[in-house]
Amino acid sequence: MTIQETPASVLASAYQRSVADYWNREKNPVNLRLGEVDGIYHHHYGIGDADWSVLEGPEETRDERITAELHRLECAQADLLLSHLGPIGPDDHLLDSGSGRGGSSLVANQRFGCHVDGISISETQVAFANEQAEKRGVADKVRFHLKNMLDTGFETGRFRAIWNNESTMYVDLSQLFPEYARMLSHGGRYVTITGCYNDAYGLPSRAVSEINAHYICDIHPRSSYFKEMARNRLVPAAVVDLTEATIPYWELRAQSPLATGIEKAFLTAYKDGSFQYLLIAADRV
């Protein structure tokens, strides 16, 4: 018998309830408008050189051009993450931990033909993502669940790969990585793309603190990822500094009608060295 999760059974603290409430109510155009470009709704930022020609041309289509370019950059970020998952076959099971509105899970299924479970503590996100899977005819292989990434209830060794895309700042890493090590099969791959503050800078800078306040999160120091992975048999296979690669996204977004006001803090933190944007891929040994 499948046990149906309820918000009360998923949310273990007042903080988690506040995060769930934030994402249940969130209808930010910078997420929704980008997803409307092609029906793939991501909840993360972008990488790569921006096409600045979108700022030129007819004024009446300027906003549409910028939105499409921002979406192209966020899709490039998702593609980069998925390319680090290693060999994936159609019978493999993947976990999209902190799956948002489901975009990366759908792309992973399209790319590999595999099974994907997405999890979120937001009922609204889970319902939206399952609706997208139904519309695309892949609900038999892509399913979204109301679950807490610190205590998922999935069986041990179920997943060939697990990823977080900009969601680890909502949890305690010392609790997160034991759960991932449990769920990954031997030789399985974990990948995260995340913002982290630079230990060499010292404590979080003012700009990093602004980002924390904006998203009600707690950005971790870079060292915490490697320390907690090492404690849980997750051995880094690749570390890619994406800081320079993400700056064009933020510079373009700052000129977009979809800007939220947090763009200046991101650009300041990236450029002064207090904040870094990393991809970390690690194998379960």
Helical run tally: 11
In total, the number of strands is 7
Instruction: Flag low-confidence runs.
Output: none
Query: What portion of the residues fall into strands of 2 or more residues?
Result: 15-25%
User: What spatial form do the alpha-carbon principal axes imply?
Assistant: globular
What radius of gyration results from the CA coordinates? 18 Å
Give a short account of the largest sheet.
7 strands, mixed
Mean pLDDT: 96
The largest sheet has its strands arranged as 3-2-1-4-5-7-6
Oligomer: single chain
Q: Level of helix content?
A: 40-55%
Write the layout of secondary structure elements.
Layout: H1 7-10, H2 14-25, H3 29-35, H4 62-83, E1 93-97, H5 103-112, E2 115-120, H6 123-135, E3 142-146, E4 159-165, H7 173-183, E5 184-197, H8 206-215, H9 222-231, E6 234-241, H10 243-253, H11 263-272, E7 275-284
Parallel strand pairs: 1-2, 1-4, 2-3, 4-5
Antiparallel strand pairs: 5-7, 6-7
Helix pairs in contact: 3-4, 7-9, 8-11, 10-11
